[in-house]
Design brief:
Structural class: alpha/beta
CATH architecture of the largest domain: Alpha-Beta Complex
Order of helices and strands: EEEHEHEHEEHEEEEEEEHHHH
Number of strands: 14
CATH topology of the largest domain: Spore Coat Polysaccharide Biosynthesis Protein SpsA, Chain A
Number of domains: 2
CATH class of the largest domain: Alpha Beta
Shape: globular
Radius of gyration: 20 Å
């Protein structure tokens, strides 16, 4: 299939060829991150900002950068924002890239993406690795690198797994823990994207307080997942297997700290590694405590 390639005027008036990629940026009140994210997407032919009724300058910033703004209202059930976008947006390109507002596609990564979509062979999706920035620097260990996500998808060949039927867990209307499943061969890109997920410790705590609601409910429901838990599979499958294995072990917060700080060499990240691994243990404790709370509530309603 022949794909169209858009052109745009760059500084100095020269014509720059844009890659035939449509980008999804899911947002809500992201005025602090969005401008920088969109600057790093100037190479893409089409950008959709999928909003959830932002009350800040998110819409204005999107318009300033020429993005198409689409409003999404979640009804509390599957699908959430990213999967809805994959199925409903009028993409004009064959390849779709999903980028969060706190992520940057580097120049090297953009060039690689342009190259693979021009000649994908039998691939219908590509994993992209992420570098997490914490306390001003790249967190090289702690189990957070490598951090592979399947983000580049051929239209009609991938969607997010359905892990849970849970309603509103206060963890947002956007997929966070779910992964994309493709119906064909996938590849792994060499260049990394940059992820500014935790600009402050306050943001880490706020996010993981919400995420632990989701973790507790999913554990309570014990629902299956499209992504297999395989100790001999790729990194994401091994991680899911380990997570299920330790779900009911005692001392989970302590085990999480030991795993991240010792086994995954978090100590090599110095003071930042120590702080980050302690925060991960706190997140684990919240997930365990909220699971126990939900279990007691359910027993009470069953009497």
């Amino acid at each position: 299939m022949t794909m169209s390639v858009a052109t745009a005027s760059a500084a100095g008036g020269e014509i720059v060829q844009k890659a035939p990629v449509s980008v999804i940026v899911p947002v809500k009140n992201e005025e602090g991150n969005l401008a920088s994210c969109l600057e790093h997407l100037a190479w893409a032919d089409e950008v959709f900002v999928v909003d959830s009724g932002s009350t800040d300058r998110t819409g204005q910033i999107s318009a300033e950068y020429g993005a198409k703004v689409v409003q999404f209202k979640w009804d509390g059930h599957f699908p959430k924002k990213k999967n809805w976008s994959l199925k409903n947006l009028p993409f004009r390109n064959e390849w779709i890239l999903i980028v969060d507002a706190d992520e940057h596609i580097t120049e090297e990564s953009a060039k690689e993406i342009a190259a693979v979509v021009a000649n994908p062979g039998d691939k219908v999706g590509y994993y992209i690795n992420r570098k997490f920035i914490f306390m001003g620097a790249w967190l090289k260990h702690c189990g957070y690198y490598p951090s592979w996500n399947l983000r580049l998808i051929k239209k009609g060949h991938g969607e997010y797994e359905k892990i849970s039927e849970t309603g509103d867990t206060k963890s947002g209307d956007n997929e966070v823990h779910e992964h994309v499943l493709c119906d064909g061969a996938v590849g792994w890109l060499k260049e990394d994207m940059i992820h500014y997920a935790f600009p402050t410790i306050d943001v880490f705590i706020e996010k993981h307080n919400r995420y632990s609601n989701w973790e507790a409910l999913v554990q309570l429901e014990r629902l299956g997942s499209g992504l297999p838990a395989n100790p001999f599979g790729h990194a994401l499958e091994r991680r899911r297997f380990a997570k299920r294995l330790v779900a009911h072990l005692p001392f989970r917060p302590l085990l999480r700290f030991f795993y991240s700080y010792v086994l995954r060499l978090g100590f090599l990240d110095g003071r930042r590694g120590w702080i980050f691994c302690r925060l991960l243990a706190t997140y684990e404790f919240l997930s365990v405590a909220k699971y126990q709370e939900l279990k007691l509530k359910r027993k009470g309603t069953e009497r």
